[in-house]
């Protein structure tokens, strides 16, 4: 699953494990990230992961079930972009003599 967000946002990933009949299981999930916290810090509270961006870039959260190693992991690919414009900056340059009348040819 891929998603994009700004650095001003947070993301929540909520997961559940089910058996082959759709009944919930109480397996403890394990997670890893691609960026080691350089783009997104992830905090887990059971089956809920919250991501808070710390820089622009990409963070991939991979969640697996150690009790069911044959089950494909859940992968959340999050791209963090810049936040909303908050200021305008600029420079002023004076071009000394640029508008002076050139001397008459003589």
Structure, explained:
By secondary structure, the chain is mainly β. It has no helices and seven strands. The protein has a four-stranded mixed β-sheet, with no helix packed on it. Strands 2-5-4 form a three-stranded antiparallel β-sheet, with no helix packed on it. It is rod-shaped, with a radius of gyration of 26 Å. It starts with a strand and ends in a 25-residue tail after the last strand.
Ordered list of secondary-structure elements with their pairings:
Elements: E1 2-6, E2 11-14, E3 30-33, E4 40-45, E5 48-53, E6 57-64, E7 74-81
Parallel strand pairs: 1-7
Antiparallel strand pairs: 2-5, 3-6, 4-5, 6-7
The proportion of residues in beta strands is 35-45%
The biggest beta sheet reads: 4 strands, mixed
Name the average pLDDT.
91
Structural class: mainly beta
Would you summarize the structure shown here?
Helices cover 0% and strands 39% of the residues. With 106 residues, the protein is an all-beta fold.
């Amino acid at each position: 699953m891929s998603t994009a967000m700004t650095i001003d946002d947070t993301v929540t990933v909520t997961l559940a494990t089910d058996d082959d009949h759709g009944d919930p299981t109480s397996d403890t999930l394990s997670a890893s990230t691609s960026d080691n916290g350089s783009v997104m810090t992830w905090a887990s509270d059971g089956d809920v992961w919250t991501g808070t961006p710390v820089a622009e870039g990409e963070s991939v959260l991979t969640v697996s079930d150690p009790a069911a190693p044959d089950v494909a992991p859940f992968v959340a690919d999050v791209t963090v972009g810049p936040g909303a414009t908050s200021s305008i900056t600029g420079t002023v340059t004076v071009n000394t003599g640029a508008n002076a009348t050139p001397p008459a040819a003589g």
